[in-house]
């Protein structure tokens, strides 16, 4: 397995819809294993294939609940359904999230509190996940990556201006920007 470079917000692969996976091959299995290793090294709670430069509809996820129980998996060709988002401004203490493609920063973002995700796993078996809370946030965040949407694209105007300043300062607005967790020192 190998830790893969994570694409930073200016890379074009992050801003285009990903293609469905046609067949689960050994190359797909290796990609998923590398994605788990990269996600863990970053560390992150999710990683979509476009974040490592692969424009396919795959994402991995991991999370431990309040009791330390692990929740980990991969979804290939996911479909997402969600409850409507509650109106109002997000709570900066409870609804802030970050992204490995915009590392070192967190911004408040309102997301749906409950989702249903379907797709297949590495064996081609059907997956059906209905979750709420942070797990729902993870599913929405990673699914957005597959549609070429970064969480910073969903921020209000004030936070969006802050994102643009940070990106310019760090040089993240250009194609090819990437960092490798555990290898490259990331200036945040």
TrEMBL record:
Highest rank taxon of the organism: Bacteria
Pfam families per record: Pep_deformylase
Keyword Hydrolase attributed: yes
Details of cofactor binding: Binds 1 Fe(2+) ion.
GO molecular function, one term: peptide deformylase activity
Catalytic activity: N-terminal N-formyl-L-methionyl-[peptide] + H2O = N-terminal L-methionyl-[peptide] + formate
InterPro entries according to UniProt: Peptide_deformylase, Peptide_deformylase_sf
Keyword Iron tagged: yes
GO BP term, example: translation
The protein's required cofactors: Fe(2+)
Binding site for Fe cation: 99, 141, 145
Keywords for this protein: Hydrolase, Iron, Metal-binding, Protein biosynthesis
Active site (catalytic residues): 142
EC number: 3.5.1.88
Family recorded in the similarity comment: Belongs to the polypeptide deformylase family.
Function: Removes the formyl group from the N-terminal Met of newly synthesized proteins. Requires at least a dipeptide for an efficient rate of reaction. N-terminal L-methionine is a prerequisite for activity but the enzyme has broad specificity at other positions.
The protein, known as: Peptide deformylase
Annotated source species: Microbacterium kyungheense
Gene responsible for this protein: def
């Amino acid at each position: 397995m190998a830790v893969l470079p994570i694409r930073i917000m200016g890379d074009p692969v992050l801003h285009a819809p990903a293609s469905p996976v046609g067949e689960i091959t050994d190359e797909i299995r290796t990609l998923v294993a590398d994605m788990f290793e990269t996600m863990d090294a970053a560390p992150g709670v999710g990683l979509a294939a476009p974040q490592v430069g692969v424009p396919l509809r795959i994402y991995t996820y991991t999370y431990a609940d309040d009791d330390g129980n692990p929740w980990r998996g991969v979804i290939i060709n996911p479909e997402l359904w969600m409850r409507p988002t509650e109106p109002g401004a997000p709570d900066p203490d409870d609804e802030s999230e970050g992204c490995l493609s915009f590392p070192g920063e967190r911004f408040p973002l309102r997301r749906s509190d409950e989702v249903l995700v379907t797709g297949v796993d590495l064996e081609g078996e059907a997956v059906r996940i209905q979750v709420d809370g942070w797990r729902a946030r993870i599913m929405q965040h990673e699914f957005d990556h597959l549609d070429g949407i970064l969480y910073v694209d969903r921020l209000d105007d004030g936070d969006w201006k802050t994102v643009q300043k940070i990106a310019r300062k760090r040089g993240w607005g250009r194609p090819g920007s990437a960092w490798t967790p555990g290898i490259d020192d990331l200036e945040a």
